[in-house]
Amino acid sequence: MQPNAPRAPAVAVKLAEADALLSELEASVAPLALAESEGVVGAKRDLQALESKIEAAKRERHKLRSAHRHALDLDRKANASAAARMRSEQLAAFRSEMQTREKEMVAVLEAAATMAKAYGRYSESTLSAQIAVPSGTSIPPMAIGPNGLYGPAFGPCERLILAELYRLAPSRADGIGRFVLPFSKPTSEMVRLKPEAIPPGIDEFIAADEAIIRELESQVLALADREMTIASQTEKAA
Asked: Which distant-in-sequence residues (6+ apart) come within 8 Å of 167 by Cβ?
C-alpha cells in the first residue's frame, strides 16, 4: 500500500468477500437440514461441519467489520490532517504573496509620489513659460497629438497622462488581458484594445512644444520686421 493511501477500501473488499461467503454458506443450510430430518446418512455430520464454517465466517465478518470501521476512522483523521497541512501550506503561500503585494504597493505609491512631485515641477515650469512669453506675442492655441486627442498643450495635460498610463500598462502573466491603472484610459475608443496604436506621449508633447516655439519665433520675427519698418518710416519723415 502506498504511503498515505486510504486504508478502508482494501478492507471493504475483504468485508464484501466475507459477506458473500457467509451468504453462500447460509444458503447451503436448508438442503442439509432437510437431508438430516429425512435421515440421510452423513447429513448430520455435514450440517455440523457447515455450521462450524458459518460460525467461523461470522467471526471473520465481525472482525472485518471492526477493521473497516477502524480504517474509516483512520482515513478520516488522515484526510483531516492532510487538509490541515495543505491549508497551512496555502496560508504560508498566501502570506508570502501578501508580503509581495505590500512591497509592490509601496513601489506604486512611491512612483505616485515621484509623479506628483514631477507634475508639480512641470506645472511650475508651465507657469514660468507663460510668464516668459516675449512681449507683444501670445501662445497660439495648440493641441497635443493626432487630431488633438491629448488636449491643449498648455492645459493640465490630463488626457496625455492618462493615455500614456494606458499605453504602458503591462500584460498579465497569464496572458489574459492587461493590468491597467483604474483611472487611466485610451485617447479614443478606436485604440482601447490596441495600446500599440497609441503614439508615445512625450513624442507628441515635444512636437506640440516645437510647433508653439516655431509660431512664437514667427511672431517675434514679424514684430521685429514691423517695428523696423515703422522706425525707417519715422526716420525718413524726420
From this structure: 186, 195, 198, 200, 201
CB neighbour list of residue 154: distance below 8 Å, 6 or more residues apart = 126, 130, 139, 142
Average pLDDT for 109-135: 96
Q: What angle do CA 130, 133, 137 make, to 5 degrees?
A: 125
Quote the pTM value: 0.68
CA distances in angstroms from 80 to 4, 36, 67, 89, listed in the order given: 12, 55, 20, 14
Is residue 203's pLDDT more than 70? yes
Distance CA 61, CA 20 (A): 10
Cα–Cα distance, 163 to 203 (Å, whole number): 13
Query: What are the Cα distances from residue 31, in Å, to 44, 49, 114?
Result: 11, 14, 98
Burial group, residue 65, by CB count within 10 angstroms (0-12, 13-18, 19+) = middle
3-class secondary-structure state, position 169: coil
Helix, strand, coil abundance in the chain, percent, nearest 5: 75, 0, 25
